[in-house]
Amino acid sequence: MPQMHDTTIMELGQEAFILCRLILGALASFLAIMLWSRTRDVAWIFVIIGTIITYIETIFSVLSLFGIGGGNIFSENSLFFVSIFLTCLPMVSFIAAFTVMVFRKYR
Fold first, then answer.
1. Disulfide-capable partner of 50 in 29, 57, 90, 101 (CB 3.0 to 4.6 Å)?
2. pTM score of the predicted model
């Protein structure tokens, strides 16, 4: 039986991680888009937007991992502004949703 090197195991783990993020993110985004057409609640819309942007960030990171994409066009001091923006924007959206819900509960 051939011996697997640690790098092979790590690569398999990384591939499984990427596939899991892509598949589950696609499912979550699909359901979020279906919900978007049925809801007019501001808090839910912010959660939906955060979910979709999270999936966009996942796709962007996978493309960057494979060397596809223009991430280095927006770089300054080795920080990719698009990557930072896509990483932070879902949290901003979730914060907005939770803020709306807190104000509703304490009115």
1. 90
2. 0.79
The ranges assigned to domains in the chain are 6-105
SS (H, E, C) 63-106: HHHCCCCCHHHHEECCEEHHHHHHHHHHHHHHHHHHHHHHHHHC
CA within 13 Å, CB half, 49: 17
Q: Which two tokens stand for residue 10?
A: 């790590």
* pLDDT tens-digit readout, 47-99: 999 999 999 999 988 888 887 765 555 555 445 677 788 899 999 999 999 99
CA 57 to chain centre: 4
Q: Is the dihedral of CA 80, 21, 69, 33 positive or negative?
A: negative
**Cα–Cα distance, 66 to 55 (Å, whole number):** 17
In contact, 46 and 97? CB cutoff 8 Å? yes
